[in-house]
Amino acid sequence: MKVIAVIPARYNSTRFPGKLMEVLGNRTIIITTYQNVVETGLFDEVFVATDSEIIFDEISKNGGKAVMTGEHETGSDRIAEAVQNIDCDIVINVQGDEPFLKKEPLKQLIDVFAKDEKKEISLASLKIQLKESEEIKNPNNVKVITDNNGFALYFSRSVIPFHRELSYNVKYYKHIGVYAFRKEVLLKFSSLEMTPMEISEKLEQLRYLENGMKIRMIETDFVGIGIDTPEDLEKAKMLL
């Protein structure tokens, strides 16, 4: 398999505009993420896909590879445009605001496809257990529930499942927005209209589920910080 990583990078983030150009340590967030992905050694190529000349120039002047795209509603749509003419089998989507992502969970995602001889899996992603009530209730933490074989049933900003039977110990899982796609699935996704639940929750992964595609979830103990707000950036600086 030829495996590449693509980092979708939008400058005008809704909750924290310009966040990828904020400085973390002595590098911008986007450069930190890019270089960490390259240093895993897992990928044949690593690209940043962006509609921003500011981010394109930041990657290029630091010796990285960047692809300019049009404007898109979702990271998957942006990546689909970027990889149309790139020869590859598996595409890993690493979020530009996840600068602390480690090698092991990325390798786990690649291994899912190496073992999927029947090609039943359309894409794979990561989840981590949530234990604090405040974190479970936070709508910025997207929750996921799966079937007995580890395939996603639903993603939501709401608390799922609802804990009605208090004598039963429910486990809650947060979705970490790192995806591994088969290239053909990614291109198919970009040709589909946005779906009702996707629009309602503002979660692109629901477009896959609503169109019958199977998402294999991998549990990880990776603890990083996705930088969605200025407060997250301060946490990241402390972690660094």
What does this structure look like?
- The protein has 240 residues and is of the alpha/beta class.
- The chain has nine helices and eleven strands.
- It has helices spanning 29-39, 53-61, 75-83, 103-114, 133-137, 183-191, 196-201, 205-210, 230-239; strands spanning 3-9, 23-24, 27-28, 45-50, 66-68, 90-93, 123-130, 143-146, 152-156, 172-182, 215-219.
Structural class by sheet pairing and helices: alpha/beta
Shape: globular
Number of helices: 9
Give the strand tally: 11
Order of helices and strands: EEEHEHEHEHEHEEEHHHEH
SSE topology sketch:
Blueprint (H helix, E strand, L loop, with lengths): L2 E7 L13 E2 L2 E2 H11 L5 E6 L2 H9 L4 E3 L6 H9 L6 E4 L9 H12 L8 E8 L2 H5 L5 E4 L5 E5 L15 E11 H9 L4 H6 L3 H6 L4 E5 L10 H10 L1
Parallel strand pairs: 1-4, 1-6, 4-5, 7-11
Antiparallel strand pairs: 2-3, 6-10, 7-10, 8-9
Summarize the structure.
With 240 residues, this protein is of the alpha/beta class.
Main attributes?
two-stranded antiparallel sheet, 240 residues, 7-stranded mixed beta sheet, alpha/beta
